Amino acid sequence: MNGITLPSATWIAGCGFIGRKLAEELHAHGVHVLGLTHSPASADSLTAEVPFPVRACDLSSASAVTALAASVPAPDAIVHCASSGRGGADQYEAVYYQGCVNLVHAAPKATLLFTSSTSVYPQIHGEEVDETAPAEPDRETGLILRRTEDFVTAHRGIVARLAGLYGPGRSVLLQRFLDGSAQIEEGESRFLNQIHRDDVVSALLTLLAHRAEAAGQIYNVADGEALTQRQCYEQLAAHFGSPVPPAGPRDLNRKRGWTHKRIVTTKLKTLGWAPRYPSFLEAVRKDPELVPSVKNLR
Q1: β pairing state of 32-37 and 77-80
Q2: For 106-154, how does the pLDDT look when each residue is reduced to its tens digit (9 = 90+)?
Q3: Per-residue pLDDT reduced to its tens digit, 184-214
């Protein structure tokens, strides 16, 4: 990466939407990658498709993680990007908090990079939010993420707070627009903060390359152009030549809560990172996979 040194050996804990792409990029840069999945079936399936080894490991089990560490070379870095599998607080506790605790104890010399969420910011007045802003979520799942973040940074790890993820095969916003189910919640009151999968991967690569400088710190990861729902849907309508979706009620039942804020990424950009897709519409226009892959989900 332009003369910056990536870790020579990295575990990717969770090889899903973000983890698999990150592992492939690291492997392409000559890093010795070990992918970790929850189930043996997932490990077998992924092994047949990727050029790096994959092992099954239950992150929530201290004995399983310890046994893994004893059977493979020690990593220089670990990226925890495993999913809770749409589970609630119990799954968050097991996968995120206990998973990070087990990884740190099993590989204490490795830098742990934990992918958290900008949902830990509870702001509702449209304010700009950087890493110094209060992160005091009002839901149990958010509190578990914060406790995990505190554990990671206390052990000289790095936290990446990711905005709403989208990319090939995944975009709730675009899918709802294309299938006609989209609604604008209470006019234009809520900002959306998003980030393309490929830009998350480049951000994580940047943090790994700057791991000594970034140790013990938190970084926001977003495309930098927060749009209201109305702005976003109006841009999509103009792009596709379709009607703007109708107004609808506010959805207060999101697992990670209802917020209204603008995520600031100045801190990450000081490390040299810049998004390939600086806005959602830019990705709709220029990512050749995005629209066709989301259309296929219908």
Answers
A1: unpaired
A2: 999 999 999 999 999 999 899 999 999 999 998 999 999 999 999 999 9
A3: 887 556 899 999 999 999 999 999 999 999 9
Torsion angle of C-alpha atoms 160, 82, 149, 276, degrees rounded to 10: 10
Residue 18 in contact with residue 203, Cβ under 8 Å?
Answer: no
| 3-class SS of residue 17 | coil
> Where on the phi/psi map is residue 51: left (φ > 0), alpha (ψ -120 to 50), or beta?
alpha
Which long-range contacts (C-beta less than 8 Å, at least 24 apart) are formed by 35-39? Answer: 35/11, 36/11, 36/12, 36/68, 36/82, 38/82
Q: How much is the pTM? A: 0.95
User: What pLDDT score was predicted for residue 177?
Assistant: 96
How do beta strands 191-192 and 227-228 pair? Answer: antiparallel
What single DSSP character describes residue 5?
P
Question: The tokens 């050749």 sit on which residue?
Answer: 288
| Model confidence band, residue 298 (pLDDT cutoffs 50, 70, 90) | low
How is residue 122 written in tokens? 């509870």
Longest dimension (CA), the chain: 58
Q: Which two tokens stand for residue 212?
A: 């000594």
Output phi, psi for 206, to 5 deg.
-65, -45
Which residues pair with residue 227 across a beta bridge?
A: 192
- The whole-angstrom separation of Cα 54 and Cα 199 is 24
Instruction: Give dist(CA 199, CA 61) in Å, integer.
Output: 31
Q: What is the dihedral angle through the alpha carbons of 129, 85, 167, 46, rounded to the nearest 10 degrees?
A: 140
Q: Is the pLDDT of residue 242 over 70?
A: yes
CB contact at 8 A, 141 and 125: no
Q: Are 24 and 50 in contact (CB under 8 A)?
A: yes
User: 170: which strand partners?
Assistant: 167
